[in-house]
Amino acid sequence: MNTPHERAPLTVIGAGPAGLTGAYYARRFGATALVLDQDTRVGGLAQTGTHRGFRFDIGGHRFFTRMPGIARLWRSMLGADFRTTNRLSRIYYNRHFFSYPLEPLPALRTLGYRESAHIVSSYVAARLSPRRPERTFDAWVINRFGERLFRTFFEAYTEKVWGIPCTHISAAWAAQRIKNMSLRSAVTKALLPGSGGPTSLITQFEYPRHGPGMMWEAFARAIEADGGRVRLGCRMARVEHDGARVHAVHVTAGGQTERLPVERLLSTVPLQHLVRAMTPAAPDHVLAAAEGLRYRAFLTVVVLVEARSVFPDNWLYIHEPSLQVARIQNYKNWSADMVPDDRYTCLGLEYFCDEGDALWSRPDASLLQLAGEELAALGLVPAGGVMDGTVVRMPHAYPVYDDAYVGHLAVIRSYLDTFDNLETAGRAGLHKYNNQDHSMLTAVLATRRLFGLRGDPWSVNADEEYHEEGDAQFVDLLTGLEHLEETQPPALDVVGAGTPSRGDV
Ligand SMILES: Cc1cc2nc3c(=O)[nH]c(=O)nc-3n(C[C@H](O)[C@H](O)[C@H](O)COP(=O)(O)OP(=O)(O)OC[C@H]3O[C@@H](n4cnc5c(N)ncnc54)[C@H](O)[C@@H]3O)c2cc1C
Prior knowledge:
FAD/NAD(P)-binding domain; five-stranded parallel sheet
């Protein structure tokens, strides 16, 4: 016999930003939700971990959105604990700090006359004979910055992130991440302040006093206060269906398997896992499409250092090609309350990898040693200066946009569309490079569909230029959610929202 919670009108798999938002939004339909997550804490990729009382993020999580409904919801959840933070994040290369995005005049000064002359002549050469066709990342950057700057400031970091040479990365990625930038526009901006610049840089953002997990813990409490339940340590293994509707999920918890009947199912787990879990099994071509989806994994080596201050930035980009670390977070610079004792600093060294590769499989002690050595090589912490630490691995951090993923998604989507009471949302749930706000929005749209209203989570476009107007239609979806009386929001046409370019790498 299932308890009332286990017969909730909405069952959600995943207690990350998408799953918790979907569950919270169920209140708009007078419904309670049961949220199931395999992890021991809520927040998914946006959780906050702790080590000996020091808090840390999985990647630093900025709260930034152009959707007022989401901004209000975040504020209503945390009140004064949701604070504005100034951004400082620089490139660290060859023991020098360079502003990000690059400011060419100071950068040239720091690099010295000789290197500057090389950079300028390589830029002129690239302008005179640009690389055509401009299909790859290296060609796109070299055409706008010259080869020398590309090798110094773009190549190593990009290859760390994706684990493949820049010659194999699409120019579209560069266009999205380095939008509106070129050496010429950067020099113009430096000489003529106010002449405009890249739209992508966010100089301020919000951040919860105790890290992003604080936000998602507040959502979980609100869901439970509404009569819902958030069950952790509970892995979804199977989704039982009859080809048109899903009937139950099978979860494993504490070595036991349970069958939980479902009325409506919102999944935010990686799409590949959802397809694998379908029982009876999805057709072979759908399974093949799911297996074709690729993910880039991410691990954070969290270290404690006995020093009040190591560097003033929220995070540093590490461009030294000889080192494996890609970014270093300094959590106390995001919020002083992330550390219990200001005499110490807690740093997060971020490594991109593939699940199961040599880095991923390295024992924690060896990763801590590597982190200590790399901090010493960078000159940031003296050798032997790492006191202690921990390692967190995330296998599905980055959905990979390779040549085949669009085709795979089309196959998977048309299969999932055959189920009346199943929706998928979020980042890995849609295989889309969504940040928290867009992950939340996709969950709202998916939940609406599950309750018979219009909305299409696939229409949220995290990759294109932000369209203020296109986005305005979503505002209403979340407006007043924190003081809800009505049960049926007006049906809205939901098409093609965009986003500012401010990805998490
Ligand atoms: C390094 C990094 C930095 C980022 N920085 C930012 C930032 O600055 N700002 C921002 O807004 N966004 C940022 N993001 C993006 C943000 O983390 C995501 O948008 C958000 O976490 C996605 O939410 P989600 O609920 O879709 O997925 P997730 O957060 O991945 O949550 C999915 C949940 O599903 C659970 N799950 C998976 N499989 C199962 C299963 N079989 N059974 C039960 N549970 C399961 C997982 O345990 C997890 O809790 C960053 C992401 C990364 C990787």
